[in-house]
Amino acid sequence: MHEAFCLDEEEPIFKAYEKHHSTVKSVCEIMESLNIKNLILYHTEDTHENKKELYTKEAKRYFNGNVIVPNDLEEIIL
After folding, report:
1. Considering the domain boundaries, does residue 75 fall inside one?
2. Do 68 and 41 form a contact (C-beta atoms < 8 A)?
């Protein structure tokens, strides 16, 4: 599990790094280098109606494992 506040291209808008947050790309590159198999991305900004789709698409460019982008308050059974 790792927070991914925004898409990489939107970092200048949301200033994730300035707020000590991560982007989808930065998280996925690190997790890929660690050979992580499953990744849950949470604590995301809420401006996109299709957030799951957008975040998953970007994550898959940098991470080869399973990606889950839950909605707020969504329950995930591990």
Report:
1. no
2. yes
31: containing domain: 2-68
The C-alpha angle with vertex 51 and arms to 46 and 56, in degrees rounded to 5, equals 140
List beta partners, residue 2: 41
Asked if residue 76 is part of any domain, the answer here is no
pTM here?
A: 0.93
| SS3 labels along the chain | CEECCECHHHHHHHCCHHHCCCEHHHHHHHHHHCCCCEEEEECCCCCCCCHHHHHHHHHHHHCCCEEECCCCCCCCCC
User: Strand, coil or helix: what is 76?
Assistant: coil
- Length, in residues, of the chain: 78
pLDDT digits 0-9 by tens, 10-67: 999 999 999 999 999 999 999 999 999 999 999 999 899 899 999 999 999 999 999 9
